[in-house]
UniProtKB/TrEMBL annotation:
SUPFAM superfamilies: Ferritin-like. InterPro entries: Ferritin-like_SF. This is Ferritin-like domain-containing protein. It comes from the Eukaryota. It holds the Pfam family Ferritin_2. It comes from Mycena sanguinolenta.
Length: 383
């Protein structure tokens, strides 16, 4: 067997091949390259969860002080295999625990549908808009935007396949849902504003569902979460007016809350076994600090005895105000989650302790771009 290749549980690890000219290892052994200051997080993560999946090489007779060049061959299919094996390896130990298996199935199925939504959205956006549409929307380079959107769409497809593997590992079945983005794809500015919210939801969904998963599965969800966060940063930049990293912390949302926002894009039957919260819409445009928010939702016909709760990243409690005085606080920057409640007691910012009995509608997500950056203005100077 090739010392640079091992097979574990039927999954071939060819994600990383190392070839050093002029040297052939005599007795392969495991090496994590610490002296080379080299890291390959996906493979090392898989190796940690799945010990037989390792890189075999031995540098014991070779001077690490020499100028080494390590050509790396990385294949898309191999990376997917490693990712899927990580999800499967995480799921296997909890198979016999029906409660844990049910939680994994619910979270993975929900995440898989959310990634379907993202992939379908980007695919339609890329197909619809021409270079001139992005230029007219104020971008300095249309190619820059389409390259990033294409990469994001490819990432979402990879996540879908990996999550399907995780679902199969706990006896679940992936759902195939249909989506309608007619109102979100009217023009480039609307499309990118929607994408910004969708990517924020991708991060919030994984954060909010983490407490539902067994500890040995959380890491597997995390290797998708970090990529979703990178997508979110890029969409913040594409706004041209927002901060790339608006807060040192993010906001976790429950699956019910995420579905209350994203459910409007789902067309036809797509039973996730989750009851969505009452959808809430903020009707204001160009929201800034001090803006009096206007909202619509089923069951809300006035403002009496109703309160708005606003949550920014990093806050442990929400800003609670009478709905008639729901002004955006001074100093707000970045994404804000908004709930309507029938109680003057603020909702918890912690997704694990957030009361649901007082919630009337929400959350809705809106952005306050009070701290524009040079990077965004360079990318989209005429936003």
């Amino acid at each position: 067997m090739d010392p640079h290749q091992r097979v574990s549980n039927g999954i071939e690890d060819t994600a990383l091949r190392v070839n050093i000219k002029g040297y052939r290892p005599k007795s392969p052994s495991v090496l994590l390259f610490p002296s080379l200051n080299f890291s390959f997080s996906l493979t090392s993560f898989a190796a940690r969860l799945h010990p037989p999946l390792v890189i075999a090489c031995d540098f014991s007779e070779y001077s690490l002080k020499q100028n080494l060049r390590l050509p790396l061959e990385m294949r898309y299919s191999s990376i997917l295999a490693v990712l899927a094996s990580s999800l499967l390896a995480s799921a296997r130990p909890v198979r016999q625990n029906r409660r844990d298996a049910a939680a994994i199935q619910t979270v993975f199925q929900f995440a898989q549908v959310l990634n379907q939504l993202e992939s379908s959205f980007y695919s339609q956006a890329i197909s619809k808009f021409q270079d001139s549409d992005f230029t007219n929307a104020g971008f300095s380079s249309s190619q820059m935007v389409t390259q990033i959107l294409t990469q994001i769409q490819a990432d979402e497809d990879t996540h879908i396949q990996a999550l399907q593997g995780g679902l199969n590992g706990v006896g679940g079945s992936p759902l195939q849902c249909n989506f309608n983005f007619d109102n979100a794809l009217t023009d480039v500015p609307t499309t990118l504003a929607t994408a910004r919210t969708v990517e924020f939801l991708g991060v919030s969904a994984f954060l909010g569902a983490a407490n539902l998963l067994p500890n040995d599965v959380v890491d597997s969800a995390g290797i998708i979460l970090t990529v979703e966060a990178r997508h979110s940063t890029l969409l913040n930049v594409f706004s041209g007016t927002g901060s790339s990293i608006p807060s040192p912390f993010d906001i976790g949302l429950t699956p019910q809350e995420v579905l209350g926002i994203a459910g409007g894009f789902i067309s036809g039957s797509c039973d996730l076994g989750i009851t969505a919260t009452n959808p809430l819409t903020v009707t204001n445009q160009n929201i800034t600090s001090g803006t009096l928010l206007a909202v619509t939702a089923n069951g809300i016909s006035g403002t009496d005895n109703l309160f708005c709760n606003m949550l920014q990243g990093g806050n442990t409690t929400m800003t609670n105000l009478p709905l008639a005085q729901c002004n955006v606080p001074t100093g707000t920057n970045g994404p804000v989650a908004l709930w309507i409640t029938n109680s003057s007691t603020p909702l918890s910012g912690d997704v694990t302790t957030r009361a649901t009995d007082a919630q009337v509608a929400g959350p809705a997500i809106f952005f306050v771009d009070s701290q524009p950056e040079a990077l965004g203005q360079m990318v989209r100077p005429n936003a």
